[in-house]
Design a protein that fits this description.
two-stranded parallel sheet, 2 strands, globular
Length: about 160
């Protein structure tokens, strides 16, 4: 039997502190990324879910940066991936789409900043994952509590 995690409309219930991905990206870049996440959220397919399943670990292995925002992003991606594919604790449809859209952007070769740019290539990915983290905050907090994980590892 699966546990359904609620996905409330209160999206501002949880804020994470600003990090390099917010401080460095211009407001225009952040707006473009917010729009990309919203667009991807509307059109998630089963093929996208398979792409996420196949590509997430491959991309995670390629990341070599020691920057704190990249380390946080990696840990958040791992948790979001775990949540998306957890067979015991199911996300609501809206939460699943949000998490999938963020992970799909993360694994995509076509993103705002090329990942190969030293020190900056993961800013857009980190910002997208941060947006997902804020939008799905309640589900994430519930999931962490159910799985007995420390929230401080991801903030």
């Amino acid at each position: 039997m699966a546990i359904i995690i609620p996905f409330p409309n209160n999206r501002n219930s949880y804020q994470i502190k600003d990090s390099e991905e917010v401080e460095i990206l211009s407001e225009k870049h952040r707006e473009v990324l917010r729009n990309k996440l919203e667009e991807k959220t509307r059109y998630i397919s089963e093929q996208d879910i398979k792409t996420i399943e196949n590509m997430t670990h491959i991309k995670l292995k390629k990341i070599r940066s020691r920057k704190m925002f990249v380390k946080k992003m990696r840990e958040r991606v791992k948790l979001l991936y775990e949540m998306l594919f957890d067979r015991e604790i199911k996300l609501t449809k809206a939460a699943k789409k949000t998490v999938a859209a963020g992970l799909l952007y993360f694994v995509s070769q076509k993103d705002l900043l090329c990942d190969d740019i030293p020190g900056l290539g993961y800013l857009d990915d980190a910002y997208i994952i941060r947006l997902v983290w804020e939008k799905a905050a309640s589900e994430i907090q519930n999931y962490l509590a159910i799985r007995g994980k420390d929230e401080r590892l991801y903030i």
